[in-house]
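sry for the spam today, last one i promise. struct tokens for design, 123 residues
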């Protein structure tokens, strides 16, 4: 049937691929939404460098709703990815996530070369 060492290696490859894609999504968010948000409040940031007060920060974020939401989304995605990765590094991958990864690998192997991830997993 399936060689268990090879199968574990394929599951590990799929896990690493999901980690890379997660960080790629974080990078994409910062390069799009983050840059947009910072660009929209660039004048206020310049004012912060001259006269930094917490009320200036508050009013900047209060009166620039869309850039604030963009930056908050970027920070939230980054922090959630960092927390998830830290948890997986410290305590290991949860059993439920391992089972999902194994199920995905089995599905990819069942579809064969037609699956877009088959090359990543089977090498």
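last one done:
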């Amino acid at each position: 049937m399936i060689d268990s060492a090879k199968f574990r290696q394929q599951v590990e490859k799929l896990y690493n691929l999901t980690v890379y894609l997660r960080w790629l999504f974080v990078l994409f968010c910062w390069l799009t939404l983050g840059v947009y948000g910072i660009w929209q409040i660039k004048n206020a940031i310049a004012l912060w460098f001259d006269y930094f007060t917490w009320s200036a920060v508050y009013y900047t974020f209060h009166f620039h709703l869309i850039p604030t939401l963009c930056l908050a989304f970027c920070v939230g995605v980054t922090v959630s990815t960092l927390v998830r990765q830290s948890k997986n590094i410290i305590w290991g991958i949860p059993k439920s996530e391992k089972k999902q990864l194994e199920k995905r690998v089995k599905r990819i192997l069942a579809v064969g070369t037609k699956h877009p991830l088959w090359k990543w997993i089977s090498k």
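The mean pLDDT is 93. ok im logging off now
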